Amino acid sequence: MKQSGNLYFFCGKMGAGKSTKSKEIAVNKNAVLLSEDEWLSSLYPNQIESFEDYLKFSAQIKPLVKKHVQNILSVGTDVVMDFSANTQGQRKWFLELALDVNASHQLIYLNLTNEQCLRQIAQGRIEQPDRAEFDTEEMFTHVTNFFEAPEVSEGLNILEFSGKE
Q1: What does the alpha-carbon distance between residue 59 and residue 123 come to, in Å, rounded to a whole number?
Q2: Keywords on this record (predicted)?
């Protein structure tokens, strides 16, 4: 039986650097990179104007994405998912996705302080002005209310990075 690929996914507050880290890992592991932002902006152009819109459309693509990723993993190719794994429910979805096809997984936890994240968000607004409307301190505060740090009891293989690295 062919060895399944590895699934890499990310947990970290808004602005922690999940997208940057996902690109780095995809290159280093020669893996397929899937970006939730890219999927959503392609499938639902100009339709995501609030966090609630994001949650609605994100849920709509999950069944398609799950099947797609499982097909890739099943042929032995590694997959890096730049999708949110910031709540226990989201992480459970990733874990089941991997376990269903006997793939190994790695949760990359970018454990940065609120201050570090806000600095990076401010820098991001300069580098990507098109995101300035969404990437605000108010949105950071709102989204952070939902954040749940990963716990060993969730049964995940967690690799943690702090802002000190």
Answers
A1: 29
A2: ATP-binding, Nucleotide-binding
